[in-house]
Hints:
Two copies of one chain form a homodimer.
Chain A: E1 4-5, E2 15-17, H1 49-55, E3 61-63, H2 66-72, E4 80-82, H3 84-90, E5 95-100, H4 111-123, E6 128-133, H5 137-149, E7 152-158, H6 159-164, H7 166-174, E8 178-182, H8 188-196, H9 204-216, E9 223-225, H10 232-238, H11 240-251, E10 259-263, H12 268-282, E11 288-294, H13 299-302, E12 305-309, E13 318-322, H14 345-352, E14 359-361, H15 363-376, H16 383-402, E15 407-412, H17 420-427, H18 438-445
Parallel strand pairs in A: 5-15, 6-7, 6-9, 7-8, 10-11, 10-15, 11-14
Antiparallel strand pairs in A: 1-4, 2-3, 4-5, 12-13
Amino acid sequence: MTIKFFLDEKEMPKQWYNLAADLPSPMQPPLGPDGKPISPDMLAPVFPMNLIEQEVSQERWIDIPEEIMKLLSIWRPSPLQRAVRLEQALGTPARIYFKNESVSPPGSHKPNTAVAQAWYNKQFGIKRLTTETGAGQWGSALAFACSLIGLECKVYMVRISFDQKPFRKVMMHTWGAECIPSPSTDTKAGQEVLDRDPDTPGSLGIAISEAIEDAVTDETGKTRYTLGSVLNHVMLHQTVIGLEAKKQLKLAGEKNVDVIIGCAGGGSNFAGLSFPFASDKINGAKIEIIPVEPASCPTLTRAPFVYDHGDIAKMTPLLPMHSLGHDFVPAPIHAGGLRYHGMSPLVSQGVVEGLFTPMAIQQLECFEAALMFARTEGMIIAPETSHAVAATIRKAREAKEEGKEKVILFNLSGHGLMDLNGYESFIHGKLADYVPTQEEVERALKVMNGYPRPEIRKTGKW
Amino acid sequence: MTIKFFLDEKEMPKQWYNLAADLPSPMQPPLGPDGKPISPDMLAPVFPMNLIEQEVSQERWIDIPEEIMKLLSIWRPSPLQRAVRLEQALGTPARIYFKNESVSPPGSHKPNTAVAQAWYNKQFGIKRLTTETGAGQWGSALAFACSLIGLECKVYMVRISFDQKPFRKVMMHTWGAECIPSPSTDTKAGQEVLDRDPDTPGSLGIAISEAIEDAVTDETGKTRYTLGSVLNHVMLHQTVIGLEAKKQLKLAGEKNVDVIIGCAGGGSNFAGLSFPFASDKINGAKIEIIPVEPASCPTLTRAPFVYDHGDIAKMTPLLPMHSLGHDFVPAPIHAGGLRYHGMSPLVSQGVVEGLFTPMAIQQLECFEAALMFARTEGMIIAPETSHAVAATIRKAREAKEEGKEKVILFNLSGHGLMDLNGYESFIHGKLADYVPTQEEVERALKVMNGYPRPEIRKTGKW
Lengths: 462, 462
């Protein structure tokens, strides 16, 4: 029985898919400090105009430039694999597939957008990129992309992950990038946080503030900021994952897929796999599409759909999204890439409209799932990915109880070879679950008092 | 232009290729303590009989059991990739291909034999396996295989690597194996070394002694020892690499290959790629086949072809091989997997007969090559693999000088994500070259004074 399905490079998608064109309600615009929609050129100090155009595009399909295709072909198309041994261990009638994004040199799905963003910046005449990173997947991916394309790169890495995953910075150095822990004294935003709380573990929200400040204060005008998730153009670049997976499921002989699963921090790996299938769902297909988040950072399952800043220092525009409030500092779980107070507006809106049905899972269940995956399928996955695997196991057990031959597809967003500290702690019983109390959530949400609320029609169709 | 060449699982080789059947001279037998050839059943306390049969087989082709094929298909066939961006950076007319063995879950070629050895042991009724590991690639691979097949596993890891690469042991734990630094106090052999030299960095030779002692002293008789390199059956299992590569070169449109390159410690990744091509060379093809070793452990380039023990405590039979003497402790280079005093008898004999033309390269040139590879091809390779890349760069530059369109194929034996300490040290200028003086080599060779010498006809044909 074949368990891996490869596509030839010639079959790589030639266009990205833009879910914004198909959502029942139009996307709500980002708002400026005055509460009014911001125009594309207000973003120009932060992003190059060619990416801003993608950010606001309503086109359903956007051509992938040939040079980006060439860079992607270093590791793409990624394999679709069937988890036969996991199925057997669970005794489930479900057929479990995963899209293996860990095969990229930095080890995750992140380079799909990193090479695209670096390429568009280079086209626009930019010389240097800044960014933040949580677990280090995104920072490594951007360092990798900048190395291939020829740009300078500075990465602000959330301090707790910087300490937990020391080798991530060496990867970035190997690709020629600079990487420092955030909050840092290199920016005003970082310095302010350190003054208030010298022992802070840091957060993605803080690191974003630092990276934006670095970009917009460069007087040469040749530095721009990049974000590894959340924004529309990032979701767009990731859709190659789902577009490839559709072709590969056909190769595997599957006519339908019942459940699509991806972990969700800022939303990009979930979006990358699911959006092309969401398009089918909008057109009538019956598919359960599940973003999985950590119970310690329950953005989609416990936070409202609001207008909020993407960062703690309120340097980003207000984005329409599920948010726990820009001051929320998530518990120090090992899935650093999921420690984010907000969520992609596109994913958020898909949840509001009922297209996606989110799930929150605790850290211990996720590591248990990761260990089971390692001992059946042989692969050591990232703690972020373990959320998708835990949800997959839940759904496969459900299929067993129901006696249904479901087809489940999840996104294996990255390997865990840089996250072995987490495995060691789990194996030795040193990890804990964290769930914010209702009071903590409410307190965090207060920072958005008085903020405008996005208006959106709930279709109730799904 | 296509740069990755995949094979369908259905095209996986169904038989292993045994070079022993085609070498001009017959292999010299291993010798016992009395200097007489040892019989297969003298090896029975150490290895199961089904593997001993493979060890001494003269059959050209040996069937791969279907269940082993299934396990291999978790990651095989591995991709053949073309290093276009490296070619461009070098400005060479050579076409450079590599077989990417880093795609296995443990990250190297080692699982090719680990799953085979674990499977044969399980068939033979064995419950527990012991082994040594240098850089940790082999130990991880065996832990992975034992996890999939259901065997207990204990790994003695060379101390310097245990310290340099702390996460390797966590990988082994994740797959359920035990891993301790060697020399250890768990064995008599380890204790003796520690008594003599408490600060020893350890060596593969010492760790082998410990793992064998552990296996043969288990009174239940259900423990056996496994070796990740050197032995004939290990080379055999690795030949899937070269057999796949041949088919993939055809897919890439190449009719001939001019140069085959693999790094060589015990010889297994080199053998895996090169033996199927060596068969062509024996039958008249013009191919340069290069095993690359560290200049700090110059087994093939500076040591004689002799009978020597595979381990420091002289627990193994005498093997006919190039050896620096079983007491030789190589300098603490980062390519831990190449720190071995001996060499596969099959590879050694191939060198004596002129089939293979070895090359020795220093650590700094290798890391320089690895950095160039990371910044052109995007992949961070193992320090062991960097020897193959450094040799590839030398040959590609040679092709440029000669203006020849050569086809070069090297084995990318593993990724370097567990070896980032080495990269960090190199980037910060903290690494050094090590070359033993002629006097040091001669002193090390003295331990073999009075040992029998293998007799072998040098064909002088190549």
